[in-house]
Design a protein that fits this description.
heterodimer; A: 0% helix; 48% strand; B: mainly beta; seven-stranded mixed beta sheet; 11 strands
Chain lengths: 112, 124
C-alpha cells in the first residue's frame, strides 16, 4: 500500500496570513499520462470531508482561489494564500494512483 | 447538484453484519465509482471499496473477505455489508461518489460529494 505522510500534525494560523501543509507519499504518484494522482480534502468540524484539490493542482468547483496545490512525484503542498476563519478544520491528502486508495493522517488547522 | 443520503443501523453486536445503503439524488448514476470510506480515531480515513454502475467492484484487501458492495441502478442506490464485526469496525462510515479524470480508469480518481456519514458502534 502507498503510505501518505502529512506534516505538521497541527498548524496554528493567523487570519490573513498564509499557511502551508506538506504531504509525502511512499511511492511516486506521477502517472505516465502526466497527472499526479493526489487529492486534498477539508473536513470541518461535524461535517463530511469535502474535495478541495484533485490531480495535484486542480481546484474543485466552488473552491476559493486562495487554495492552491503543487508538487509532483512524492512531495506535495497545499497552500492557503490568506487564511480565513472558515478554513479551520482537518486537511487530508489522498492518493488515487493505485488501490487501495489511501489517506494521510490529517493536519489540524486552528486559529491562533 | 448531486446529493448522497445514507442510512443503516448504528449499534451492532460483535459477530453481526453491518448493512448501510446510500441513495444518489440529482445526478447521473453511470460513469462513476460509488464508494464507501470509514473514519475511526485509531485508523483515520480508510477506503473500503467501490462499485460502478455495471456492478464491477474494487475492495481494500484488508477488508475484502468481509465486505460486499452492491448496486441497485433502478433506484440509484448502492449498499455496503460488512460481516463478522468486531469493536475495531467501530467508525463513521461515509458513502461517496468517485469520479475519473477521463478516458478509461480502473478506480476513482477523487471523491465528491460525500454522504453525511453514519456512526456505527460495535459493542456487546
Amino acid at each position: 500500500d502507498i503510505v501518505m505522510t502529512q506534516s505538521p500534525l497541527s498548524l496554528p494560523v493567523t487570519p490573513g496570513e498564509p499557511a502551508s501543509i506538506s504531504c509525502r507519499s511512499s511511492q511516486s504518484l506521477l502517472h505516465k499520462n502526466g497527472h499526479n494522482y493526489l487529492n486534498w480534502y477539508l473536513q470541518k468540524s461535524g461535517q463530511s470531508p469535502q474535495l478541495l484539490i484533485n490531480l495535484g493542482s486542480n481546484r474543485a468547483s466552488g473552491v476559493p482561489d486562495r487554495f492552491s496545490g503543487s508538487g509532483s512525484g512524492t512531495d506535495f503542498t497545499l497552500k492557503i494564500s490568506r487564511v480565513e476563519a472558515e478554513d479551520i478544520g482537518v486537511y487530508y491528502c489522498m492518493q488515487a494512483l493505485q488501490t487501495p486508495l489511501t489517506f494521510g493522517g490529517g493536519t489540524k488547522v486552528e486559529i491562533k | 447538484q448531486v446529493q448522497l443520503q445514507q442510512w443503516g443501523a448504528g449499534l451492532l453486536k460483535p459477530s453481526e453484519t453491518l448493512s448501510l445503503t446510500c441513495a444518489v439524488y440529482g445526478g447521473s448514476f453511470s460513469g462513476y465509482y460509488w464508494s464507501w470510506i470509514r473514519q475511526s480515531p485509531g485508523k483515520g480515513l480508510e477506503w473500503i471499496g467501490e462499485i460502478d454502475y455495471t456492478g464491477s467492484t474494487n475492495y481494500n484487501p484488508s477488508l475484502k473477505s468481509r465486505v460486499t458492495i452492491s448496486v441497485d441502478t433502478s433506484n440509484n442506490q448502492f449498499s455496503l455489508k460488512v460481516t463478522s464485526l468486531t469493536a475495531a469496525d467501530t467508525a463513521v462510515y461515509y458513502c461517496a461518489r468517485g469520479a475519473c479524470s477521463g478516458g478509461s480508469c480502473s478506480s476513482a480518481d477523487w471523491f465528491a460529494p460525500w454522504g453525511q456519514g453514519t456512526l456505527v458502534t460495535v459493542s456487546s
